[in-house]
Amino acid sequence: MNIKRQLLLGFSLIILLVSLAAYTTFEMTKESSETFNSALSQQYKKQNSILKMQLSGRSYTLHVQQAILTEDVFDRDEIIMLSYLYARTYNQNRAEFETIMNETDFT
């Protein structure tokens, strides 16, 4: 083998190894990015569900306080019935949150 052929073979081998390393790095980065996007999406769903639970819980508490402070029996009954709506919304959001928590690998 002459020197020209050996240099060409060595240079080709180096190019092949660098290309292989670049491809492997690209694939690993793409996989990491997809995992990160999936985890981030799940976190947004969890955060949104918790926010809805917080808002309906706060509305329920405010309506119960208003019912306690109301003198008129009929108005109090109407406020209590409205507070049941917020309690039901809270429970629905809580069930949704539990579903999200059970179906994800990311905690």
Structural commentary:
The structure is a single chain. By secondary structure, the protein is an all-alpha fold. It is built from two helices and no strands. Helix 1 packs antiparallel against helix 2 (73-103). The chain is rod-shaped and about 105 Å long. It starts with a helix and ends with a helix.
Task: Set down the secondary structure blueprint.
Layout: H1 3-69, H2 73-103
What gross morphology would you assign?
rod-shaped
Amount of helix: over 70%
Mean pLDDT, all residues: 91
What is the chains' assembly state? Answer: single chain
Strand and helix order: HH
Overall structural class, as computed from helix and strand content, comes to mainly alpha
Radius of gyration: 30 Å
* Total number of helices: 2
Q: What's the end-to-end separation, in Å? A: 60 Å
Which regions are unreliable across 5 or more consecutive residues at pLDDT < 50?
none
- For the secondary structure, the number of strands is 0
Q: Mind summarizing the main beta sheet?
A: none
What portion of residues belong to β-strands?
under 5%
Short description:
The chain has 107 residues and is mostly helical. Helix content is 92%, strand content 0%. It contains two helices and no strands.
